[in-house]
Structures are given as structure tokens and as C-alpha cells.
Amino acid sequence: MVTDTIVPKRILLIKLRHHGDMLLTTPVISALKQHFPEVEIDVLLYQETIPILSRNAQINNLWGLQRSLRGLKKLRHLFSLYRHLSARHFDWVIHLSDQWNGALLARLLHPAEAIGFDYPKRRNKYWQRCFTRLAELAPSNSLHAVEQNLLALKALGLTVEDRDKRCTMAINQEDQQQIQAQLARLGIHGAYIVVHPAARWFFKCWEDDRFAEVIQMLANDGWPVIVTGGPSEQELALVANIMAQVRSPRVHSLAGQLSLNTLAALINGARLFIGVDSVPMHMAAALKTDCIALFGPSKIQEWHPWMTRSIVLSAADYSPLPDPDDIDTATDERYLSAIPVEAVLEATQNLLRPEEATARHD
User: Fold this and answer.
1) Is 0.90 surpassed by the pTM of this model?
2) 3-state secondary structure (DSSP) of residue 45
3) What domains can you pick out in the chain, each with its CATH number?
């Protein structure tokens, strides 16, 4: 086990996954800073996911891997990245996912400690030689992704207090000012609700007409509602279809108009967030915004809103669903149709009454 005399000066955290996965690594960073306040922490991540961590003051450097490159350009990029990382002389490397390129870096950088996970599909001598220690991998859907990430620190003999298990979605003053200006242009000067109906994979989405019905009811009750979505053609079309079914001056769309950071600022100021299993849902949880999350065939125990006041509605509670591991992520089929509008409206009423006890997942 790691002793008190071994104090790392620099740590490299490797996580090559999607935006939400990156946000769920932040408790590892917070816990490391709690144990070693002076340590410098760098993160290697995919280039396109950099914005999710770009405001985090606990991180010294973000190194972006450009996975779209091919051939000679890719080799040059990887070699340049290796040279920069090698010059940092990391004492520890912690690899939180199963890619071989992260494992090879853990070996090539020659840290005093290199931590990976004991993935069943990686149980061979080549994977083992890349690390000084292998952390436990919990059974599928038995732990939240945050807790799974933190098992890497357990392998180092580090304990983690509950206060360090929260995710961090940092926002700067410029993000806040941009959102305040947007809200002023929309004529919103008080409490509002954010609805984010889309996800990167559409099998995680609810029906447009049902979202429209919920939004209409909230607007009828006097709530300003802001509908958000990403800039992709699919997401813009989804939001446009919802907006076409709503008749209220209190409902506004900012789909495609916000960066990840200004979306965070918008969610941070919201009275309530309503969405599906997506990055903005994890952002809402990190920002401690009350959250209603609609789930289909996803591993809820791993991906539910983490440590915030929330209500999770699962389609599996209303109708049988296929196993999450059997889903074709490219399908256009939506698996949330069994969730009734009434259940979502009841959840909103519960969370909009803060004195009422509500379901929590933390």
C-alpha cells in the first residue's frame, strides 16, 4: 500500500471516453487534491471532451487526443503527445478505462505507480506489465461510475471521504454573464425550468409529443421553460418538433445556441432540470440542480444522477425492456415510450415543492 512518505508531485489521469464519463472522473481529482494539496494533476482525454473540464481549477493541464487523425498525421500527433507528457515526469499514472493506448502510455512514461483496472477482457500478461497495480472492477451495474472510478484510489491505499465524492462542473464569470444576458433577452428574470430532451443516442429519448405535453403543462402553471439541445441536425429537428407542439410565450428554445459551458451556467441557475440519460443530466447533478431523469435500457445503478435531489423514472418499471448490452446504439427506436406523462408531471410537482420528501440516488 502507499505510505504517507510517498507524496506524488505530478499525476496523470487518463480517461478516453465521452463527455459524461469525463465529468464523472472529477471526484477522483478532488480526492487526490484532498490527500495531496500541492500535487499537479493533468488529464489526458479526447480533444472534443476538453470543454467539460476546461473550467476545473484543480487540473493543471488538459491533453487532448485527436482520434479523427489517420496515417502519418496520427503517428506525428501521438509522438508529439508522448513527448509533452514525458517531459512532465509524472510520479503516478491512473488509467480509468480499457484502451490499450492508455495502458502503453502508463508503461512508457515510467511512473513510480501506474494504476489500471482488472478488466476480464484484459487479463493477460501484456496488460498487467503496463501497471504496477490493478484495481478491482465491480460487477456490471453494481456500482455508480463515480464509485467505480474511485476504486483506482483504493488500490493505492487511499480512502475517500463523502465530501470528495461529488462531481465538479466548474463555471466561470464569463459563462454566467452570457447566460444572464440570454435570459434578459428572453424576458426571464426569476425562476425557470430547463428541459433537455435529447441524448447522443436516440434510443435514450422519450417521445416528442410527451415532452411537449409536460412543457405545456409547466408553462400553463406559470413556469418559464427553456428547451435546450445540441447543434447536431438530429437534435435540432427533435427540439423543433417539440416546440411546434407547444403554445406558450413562456417556452423558449436555445437548442444549438449554447456551448457546453454556457449550458452549464443555464442549468446551474435553473429551479429544475428535466431530461434523459445524457451529459446535461450529469451536469445538473454536479451543479446540485434538482433533476428528473428519464431512463430506458441503460444501467441505472451506474449512470443515475449522482448526489443531487433527483427522481429517476425508468421505462422498465412500466414495461419490459431489452438488456442494455443488447441495444444497437445506432437504432432510431426509442425505448422510453412506456413512461406515462402523468408520472413525469407528478415528479415535477414533488421536486418543485422543496419541503416534500423525494426520491434520492446518492
Assistant:
1) yes
2) strand
3) 10-164 (3.40.50.2000), 173-361 (3.40.50.2000)
